[in-house]
Amino acid sequence: MRFSVVRYCVILSILAISITSCIDNVISSIPDYPVSLQLNLITTYPTFRNSTDQFLVFKKPVYVTDRVGYGGILVNTGFDGVYYAFDLSCPFEAKQDILVVPNLNGQAICPGCGSVFNIGYGNGDPISGKAKQALKRYKAILSGDVLYITLK
User: Which parts of the chain are beta strand (E)?
Assistant: First the structure.
C-alpha cells in the first residue's frame, strides 16, 4: 500500500511538471527578434486608449530604441478592450515581406496565402486558409498611460 502512494505522488509530480513546462512554449515558424515598443496612450495615441477593435501597425521603428520583431508589430484592442500585440508576418509564409493586413472586423488577412486570423479575441488563431499556426504573439502590458510591447 505504501508503494502505491509513493508511485501516485511521483506520477502526479511528473504530470504537474510536464503541464507547467508547456504553458509558454509555443513553437512558431516566426523567429524570435527583439521587440520593444512604448506607446504613450495620452500624448501620442490618444484615440487608441479605451477603444475596442482598433489597431496600430508598426512596420519600422518610430524611435531609435524601438524594436519591431521579425515582420513588424500589429497592436490591437480586442473586443474585450484588452491590448494585444502580434508579429505582422504570416506564420505560413514566414517571410519578412509578406505581412498580414488587419481589418475592422477583428481579423488579419495574409495577402500571400489568403489565411485569415482572429485578432479580435486576442489569440491570433487561423480562421481559414493554409495557415495552421496562430500569429506570433507578443506581450502587451499597460502601465499608467504607457503600453509596453515586449517579446516575453
Answer: 35-40, 54-58, 67-68, 73-77, 83-87, 101-102, 107-109, 116-118, 126-128, 137-143, 146-150
Distances (CA, A) of 14 to 18, 19, 21, 125, 143: 6, 9, 11, 30, 37
pTM of the model: 0.81
Task: Give phi and psi for 139, each to the nearest 5.
Answer: -80, 135
Kindly report the number of other CB atoms within 10 A of residue 82's CB atom: 13
Dihedral pair phi/psi, residue 150, rounded to 5°: -135, 165
CA dist 35 and 26 (Å) reads 17
Q: Which of 2-16, 64-78, 95-109 comes out lowest in average pLDDT?
A: 2-16
Look up residue 45 and give its three cell numbers. Answer: 495615441
102, 93, 142: which is closest to 124 by C-alpha?
102
Domains and CATH numbers, the chain: 27-150 (2.102.10.10)
Q: How far apart are the first and last CA of the chain?
A: 45
